[in-house]
Design goal:
Blueprint lengths: L1 H16 L12 E4 L3 E4 L2 E10 L5 E9 L4 E5 L7 E4 L5 E13 L3 E12 L5 E6 L2 E2 L4 E7 L8 E5 L2 E2 L1 E5 L3 E5 L7 E9 L2 E11 L3 E5 L3 E3 L3 E7 L8 E5 L2 E8 L3 E5 L11 E3 L1 E5 L2 E4 L4 E4 L2 E4 L15 E3 L2 E5 L6 E5 L4 E5 L13 E5 L2 E8 L5 E9 L4 E5 L9 E6 L2 E6 L4 E5 L4 E4 L13 E5 L2 E6 L2 E6 L4 E7 L12 E5 L2 E6 L3 E6 L4 E7 L8 E8 L2 E9 L7 E5 L2
Length: about 575
């Protein structure tokens, strides 16, 4: 007070005694900062006096305080008094410097500096939260009083996670709910200059909830539906797990997610029980009841192995049993699924020379051995029939075509052969009548072409492409692309008809099913045997069961093996 009085006396004397003094000619004002008063734990009162108004227009006025590290400016220009009761932004037991300021159109004028020891400021108070529930990333506003006027002095925490502040005043703060794993009710914490307060109201952080599953028992590759709420609301980074296995998501909405049951790669020969877990951003939820991934594979008795090397060919089925031809010694071997055993079928060995890569087409009571490739890699036009009742081979007239590899399909009781060379033939092997149809529309690459029947229609598969055969117009229609390929050390893909659609065993490992309704290939399972990519397989179908016989491999343990697959 003494300093303020002395300064005021000097200024008054100076003004009254010097009529022509320079101060009377000043364009800018003169101010005095008064001593800080009403210092208590709620705040302080700052006051100043304008001694000379000056000639320039005053735009703003107020106080600047500093603790030596940070400087803050408080405007009081919206008040008719040069005075403010400061209730925020003061730390306890900290010495501050304060001085008044005036901003004119051309200048900033400062008053004298005064010092005071702060006893703190009024703790902030939160009145309301709006809205009172939301998701990670949502915008929320709190209203109250005694917030800091400076955004950097306010900190918001939601469940102890720091929130990003968008807009801040001394009575309202707008912020974004931070990403976190927590869901449920929690307080909003506001920190102002190291003073923390919690909201009395709770804010509910929402997250995904699973209410039901369309089925709790399915094989891998089957589609199921997960029902619930807020399933995709927290962002686009959504994942579904069955235990440790990640599931492919087909479709997703906020209340429904369609997924494919994942392949239990580490345990293919047993049922797997798994908890379904959904993750969405930082949020995770699970379904209370375990899901059963039904096993698709069963180990069966392998093909017979002898002291001499066997060379089994493609399998075929007849009257509920499976068959394979060993071309090295000419015998046909029969698999009885009831006994799970192999035995030689009949006594009639193949009566001609050894060759392989034939098609074995079962038709009525006969099996036709169509074409093949000899040991010099020459494609043959040979045609043999085997009477399954009389147990004898019969040589028929040569074919009008040959192939290095081929696929066949039976459509409307007629046999068709599509060769790797791109020729399509309609064949009546009994009557030995053949009709060449239009060639395949493009060159077949990488030594693979095969065929299957799905929903009464014929399809062809090559690496990368799928085709539908239009019998009426004798042309091939391109369908969906596929991911089938051959690695340097892996086997060629194998295609077969099963359960009214087509399947492909790619590289000896991955089993795909063709979804003819949606024109897409679905990964259904993985072959469970050892050295899968390096073992040649022979496949035959018995009713609703597909049998995969590993007939040769470069590695010990890769063959002979056999597994039954059920959808």
């Amino acid at each position: 007070m003494k300093r303020y009085f002395s300064a005021l006396v000097i200024i008054i004397c100076f003004i009254s005694g010097c009529k022509d003094a320079e101060i009377q000619q000043k364009e800018y004002p003169l101010i005095i900062t008064k001593e800080v008063s009403e210092i208590n734990s709620e705040g302080v009162t700052l006051e100043a006096e304008i001694v000379v108004a000056g000639k320039d227009n005053i735009i703003d006025y107020g106080f600047i305080i500093s603790d030596g590290k940070n400087t803050k400016k408080f405007s009081v220009s919206n008040s008719n008094k040069f005075k403010i009761r400061l209730l925020t932004d003061l730390k306890s037991n900290v010495e501050y410097e304060c001085r008044a300021y005036i901003t004119t159109r051309n200048k900033i004028v400062y008053g004298n500096t005064v010092r005071f020891l702060s006893l703190g400021s009024t703790p902030p108070l939160i009145y309301d939260i709006n809205p009172k529930s939301g998701f990670d990333g949502d915008t929320v506003r709190i209203n109250g009083k005694y917030f800091s006027s400076f955004s950097e002095n306010n900190q918001i925490y939601v469940n102890d996670k720091t929130a990003k502040i968008i807009l801040s005043t001394d009575s309202a703060i707008t912020f974004i709910i931070p990403s976190q794993s927590f869901t449920g009710a929690t307080e909003i914490t506001l920190e102002v200059n190291a003073i923390k307060v919690k909201s009395t109201q709770k804010f509910t952080i929402l997250g995904p909830q699973i209410s039901s599953i369309s089925s709790l028992i399915e094989a891998s590759g089957k589609a199921i539906t997960i029902n619930g709420a807020n399933l995709i609301r927290n962002g686009s980074n959504i994942a579904i797990f069955f235990g440790q296995y990640n599931a492919e998501i087909l479709n997703s909405t906020n209340t429904r997610i369609d997924v494919l049951v994942p392949i239990p790669s580490l345990n293919l020969l047993a049922d797997n029980y798994a908890i379904i877990k959904l993750t969405n951003g930082s949020k995770t939820t699970t379904y209370s009841t375990a899901f059963k991934i039904k096993k698709s594979w069963v180990r069966k008795s392998p093909p017979l192995k002898f002291d001499w090397p066997t060379r089994y060919q493609e399998g075929f089925s007849y009257n509920g049993k499976g068959y394979m031809h060993d071309v090295n010694h000419g015998n046909i071997y029969e698999y009885d699924p009831q006994k799970d055993s192999w035995s030689q079928f009949g006594t009639s060995a193949f009566p001609s020379v050894i060759y392989g890569k034939s098609l074995y087409i079962q038709y009525n009571d006969q099996v036709f051995r169509v074409g093949g490739v000899d040991y010099l890699s020459v494609s043959l036009k040979s045609l043999w029939s085997y009477d399954m009742v009389a147990n004898r081979w019969k040589l028929k007239s040569n074919l009008p075509f040959s192939f290095s590899s081929a696929g066949y399909f039976i459509l409307e009781n007629q046999i068709y052969i599509l060769t790797y060379e791109g020729q399509l033939w309609q064949c009546d092997f009994e009557m030995e009548q053949y009709t060449r149809l239009n060639d395949f529309p493009e060159k077949i690459q990488n030594f693979f072409v095969s065929t299957f029947i799905a929903n009464g229609n014929a399809y062809a598969v090559q690496y990368g492409k799928t085709w539908l055969y239009d019998k009426q117009n004798d042309k091939w229609i391109p369908k969906t692309a596929n991911l089938f390929s051959k690695g340097y050390y892996s086997t060629y893909a194998k295609c077969f008809s099963f359960n009214n659609t087509g399947y492909v065993l790619n590289e000896g490992t991955d089993l795909y099913q063709y979804d003819y309704v949606n024109d897409k290939w679905i990964l259904r399972s993985e072959y469970p045997g050892e050295w899968a990519s390096n073992s040649e397989k022979s496949i035959f179908i018995l009713g609703d069961e597909a049998y995969f016989a590993a007939i040769s491999s470069n590695y010990t343990g890769g063959a002979p093996l056999m597994f039954l697959y059920q959808d």
